[in-house]
Design a protein that fits this description.
single chain; 5% helix; 12-stranded antiparallel beta sheet; mainly beta; 6-stranded mixed beta sheet; globular
């Protein structure tokens, strides 16, 4: 029986089926609308670094044929064959998308779905309707993504532009050629459904190991039972060439007399340092080194009027802003950089609780309800003395969160638990169960350490000062109570006092006298930051 996914649901492919030769079917329709259904093979940076892995009507298969476009069959508008164990190592994600060809928008579509079939049997289905979208002209339906093993995620995220804009979002560029005579295409390979075993093994439930049973061979590729694959039909006559994004051809306009363009001739473009935004003053160089020229000004000794690293075809403003463009991964939580986190409230349908004042920008229609009282406001804020007051973010849109340029780390919980220092919590899904825990001890600033314990399914965003370190819990693991950030909820915490007479012999001198000792079974951990609160 197929498992029904909702938007935002994820699962390991191995939990759905032992097979790796899979059929992916997409069904989408609307009155008077036609659709282009494509698959993007993306690298670790979620970019289309190789245009041969843009699988669409004019390029029906990848070089090694690990991804093949099969055409309409078995009631599906479009179908694909995906052989996971043949996908090259540089491909980390397969994003299946549908775009409107011509006029129209996604709100006009009727009920549709994306499904996975293994050996002729449907194992998972994600259904959607046009009511979930507004004026978007494209939608990211689902992803196969590599995270130690291959997994599937139901995305269902709308995209404002059409196929061209979606391709550019993934780092590619579309160039239309002059119409040419249509070239005959080879028919898509036809596959007969394999014979069903006498006693098929039941699909394992999500998140639980399957009961021991006699090993069954992995299902081979097969279209849904009762339907024969239809030959692939040619949909367009004008071929479309997809290539990685390059500057448009043309000439570079003459530079203004002053200030001169930045840089030296013959050098590659200089990428700004991480976290440095164009227009901000460049920090002073270390002693003995020459300070870089401010952005937009010519360094001393460089001929005027010669741009640095700008190709003759012209890169312009788009190239300068490219490193800072918004990162869209189709996931609910997306780090934009080390200090900025984006949450898409349209995915999952669950509100987000965030530290009050942590919103730096939002898009769409988002409502903020400030938690001035109740459990989160009174207990977490007033009782701890850390003034942690939460706001509730709801609606349809994207919210960008940050605080004091701290490093942000999204932690996805799938039924497990974690304890996080209340000072280190930035935001979390309201679907998580959370409570305040108090660790009392003499010598701890304020008399106690307050932590929040999270459990369930969802994401919690933890902030740290600097890059943290994760250590396994052993019987002799100690941490400064002001530097510890988080630990596994199964760990036991004990107050440890170590008095060193030599370090405390002078009045007013404070040594490291109070530590936390952690104990637990193998697999437990603690997270410590290189900073004391």
């Amino acid at each position: 029986m197929a498992r029904e996914f909702q938007r935002g649901h994820k699962a390991k492919i191995s939990d759905l089926t032992p097979g790796t030769d899979l059929y992916v079917g997409v069904q989408i329709a609307g009155p008077g609308l036609t659709f282009d259904i494509s698959c993007f093979g993306l690298d670790a940076n979620e970019q289309l670094s190789d245009d041969r892995y843009f699988i669409f009507f004019n390029q029906p298969k990848s070089p090694e044929e690990s991804i093949q476009l099969l055409g309409a069959q078995a009631g599906d508008t479009e179908s694909f064959r995906v052989t996971l164990d043949r996908i090259p190592a540089n491909i980390h994600k397969l994003s299946f998308t549908a775009t409107v060809d011509g006029a129209g928008q996604m709100s006009q579509v009727g009920p549709g779905y994306i499904r996975i079939v293994a050996g002729g049997e449907e194992v998972v289905r994600y259904a959607f309707t046009g009511s979930e979208f507004t004026t978007e002209r494209a939608v990211m339906l689902g992803d196969f993504y590599l995270k130690d093993v291959w997994r599937f995620a139901a995305v269902g995220q709308g995209f404002d532009g059409g196929l061209d804009a979606l391709l550019k979002n993934f780092g590619g560029e579309v160039a239309e050629e002059a119409p040419a005579a249509p070239q005959p295409q080879a028919a898509a390979p036809s596959f007969a459904p394999p014979a069903q075993p006498a006693a098929p093994a039941p699909a394992p439930s999500f998140g639980a190991p399957a009961a021991p049973q006699v090993p069954q061979p992995a299902p081979s590729f097969g279209a849904p039972a009762g339907q024969a694959p239809a030959p692939q039909q040619q949909m367009h006559a004008a071929p479309t060439i997809a290539a990685p994004m390059t500057p448009q051809g043309g000439t570079v306009p003459p530079p203004a007399p002053a200030p001169a363009p930045y840089g030296q001739p013959g050098q590659p473009p200089q990428q700004p340092q991480f976290g440095q935004v164009p227009g901000q003053p460049v920090p002073a160089a270390p002693y003995g080194q020459q300070a870089p020229a401010p952005f937009g000004q010519q360094p001393p000794g460089i001929p005027q009027g010669v741009p640095q690293g700008v190709p003759q075809s012209g890169a312009g403003l788009q190239a300068a802003l490219q490193p800072y463009k918004e990162t869209a991964t189709g996931q609910r939580w997306t780090p934009q950089n080390q200090q900025l986190m984006r949450v898409d409230l349209t995915m999952g349908g669950t509100p987000v609780l965030a530290r009050q004042g942590s919103m730096v920008m939002y898009q769409g229609k988002v409502d903020f309800g400030y938690k001035g009282a109740g459990f989160a406001g009174r207990v977490v804020g007033n009782a701890t003395g850390q003034e942690m007051q939460l706001m509730r973010c709801t609606g349809r849109g994207q919210v960008f969160l940050a605080e004091d340029a701290a490093h942000l780390h999204p932690i996805e919980l799938q039924g497990d638990g974690i304890c996080v220092s209340a000072e280190s919590v930035l935001a979390f899904d309201e679907s998580l169960q959370y409570e305040v825990r108090r660790i009392e001890g003499h010598g701890i600033p304020g008399g106690a350490l307050f932590t929040m314990q999270f459990q369930g399914t969802g994401t919690v965003v933890v902030k740290t000062h600097g890059v943290p370190v994760v250590l396994p819990v052993t019987p002799t693991t100690f941490a400064d109570c002001n530097a510890v950030v988080a630990w596994s909820s199964a760990s036991q915490v004990i107050i440890s006092s170590q008095v060193r007479l030599r370090r405390n012999a002078y009045p007013g001198h404070s040594g490291e006298t109070v530590n936390l000792q952690f104990r637990g079974a193998p697999g437990n951990f603690i997270v410590v930051q290189p900073y004391e609160v």
